């Protein structure tokens, strides 16, 4: 065909169709060659004589062999896939059909069994990994006054902890005042004042913005510095409690307040923040969490530090991957922190704030320094510039390295 020899091309095509007469591609090729050469010239061309002789002889031999198999029980396994069905005796055809169906069923059952085994192995591996995490967690909190009130066991999951006593009542009030003075509507959400639900307003401020406002005298610099130090405190506690072998780096820090809009609470059925996972896209129907952009796939640990509890609703809760089956609930209160790993093992959400204002510091961390928050680096530099070495050393000295007695739920 490539050389323009359509006679040979037709001969080859007809030879091939001797063995596979229903091959659509070759039938189309033959039709094309015939159209190019012309019907009157193509019609007399026959398959190669030696191949046709082989084909006919093979069919006769197969008929004898199948007859022997059918009548005398002498086994014959046909090595070819091109043998016409009519060559095989009807009784053998029926037998082979049953055998093929049986083989297909057995193959399917084996495949299903292998899948079940793989699933069991994966589940066992996950259980082992979860158990390993459970065994690893439970390190000292390194700050006096802080104590574990709920561990992973009490929270019905893995890599979860609730710590109380992270802030004093006065520190909570000071940070709330900072939020109300410095926060912008829709901060972090392109100015959307109600990014998660139309029934609440959302205000937030980052560490760097708070420090800059403090530098400009628009908010108390001491309050901005407290905000900065509190985030460092939570980071150190997370590293120590979860016994991490490498340091955590800030991925994002946000001091936020959610305020219920009174006139939009009647008949409300949505959440303050729907159930999600921090480093993957949750598909609750399929029970999977896809770790790909736009998810923040580099986030490894998360924490929320609450500043108050004088509001209605707004509970934090963990669920299964279905986003419906609740596994644990945490009621916010001043100085209470919830820490957890950011993966699919910890879907979570926030129930509707139906009255009042709920304020908290939300923190996300990464183990990969390449994804460290740029604003944090700027904040670190600004702190070094604004505060003397003595101030910084004094803050460091206030961070005890000794272990603190933890709550009764500690593993």
UniProtKB/TrEMBL annotation:
<keyword id="KW-0479">Metal-binding</keyword>
<dbReference type="GO" id="GO:0032963">
    <property type="term" value="P:collagen metabolic process"/>
</dbReference>
<dbReference type="InterPro" id="IPR005123">
    <property type="entry name" value="Oxoglu/Fe-dep_dioxygenase_dom"/>
</dbReference>
<feature type="domain" description="Fe2OG dioxygenase">
    <location>
        <begin position="253"/>
        <end position="367"/>
    </location>
</feature>
<dbReference type="InterPro" id="IPR011990">
    <property type="entry name" value="TPR-like_helical_dom_sf"/>
</dbReference>
<keyword id="KW-0802">TPR repeat</keyword>
<keyword id="KW-0677">Repeat</keyword>
<keyword id="KW-0175">Coiled coil</keyword>
<keyword id="KW-0408">Iron</keyword>
<dbReference type="Pfam" id="PF23557">
    <property type="entry name" value="TPR_leprecan"/>
</dbReference>
<dbReference type="Pfam" id="PF13640">
    <property type="entry name" value="2OG-FeII_Oxy_3"/>
</dbReference>
<dbReference type="GO" id="GO:0031418">
    <property type="term" value="F:L-ascorbic acid binding"/>
</dbReference>
<protein>
    <recommendedName>
        <fullName>procollagen-proline 3-dioxygenase</fullName>
        <ecNumber>1.14.11.7</ecNumber>
    </recommendedName>
</protein>
<keyword id="KW-0223">Dioxygenase</keyword>
<feature type="coiled-coil region">
    <location>
        <begin position="103"/>
        <end position="137"/>
    </location>
</feature>
<keyword id="KW-0847">Vitamin C</keyword>
<dbReference type="InterPro" id="IPR006620">
    <property type="entry name" value="Pro_4_hyd_alph"/>
</dbReference>
<dbReference type="GO" id="GO:0005506">
    <property type="term" value="F:iron ion binding"/>
</dbReference>
<dbReference type="GO" id="GO:0019797">
    <property type="term" value="F:procollagen-proline 3-dioxygenase activity"/>
</dbReference>
<keyword id="KW-0256">Endoplasmic reticulum</keyword>
<comment type="similarity">
    <text>Belongs to the leprecan family.</text>
</comment>
<dbReference type="InterPro" id="IPR056585">
    <property type="entry name" value="Leprecan_dom"/>
</dbReference>
<keyword id="KW-0732">Signal</keyword>
<keyword id="KW-0325">Glycoprotein</keyword>
<dbReference type="GO" id="GO:0005783">
    <property type="term" value="C:endoplasmic reticulum"/>
</dbReference>
<dbReference type="InterPro" id="IPR044862">
    <property type="entry name" value="Pro_4_hyd_alph_FE2OG_OXY"/>
</dbReference>
<keyword id="KW-0560">Oxidoreductase</keyword>
<dbReference type="InterPro" id="IPR039575">
    <property type="entry name" value="P3H"/>
</dbReference>
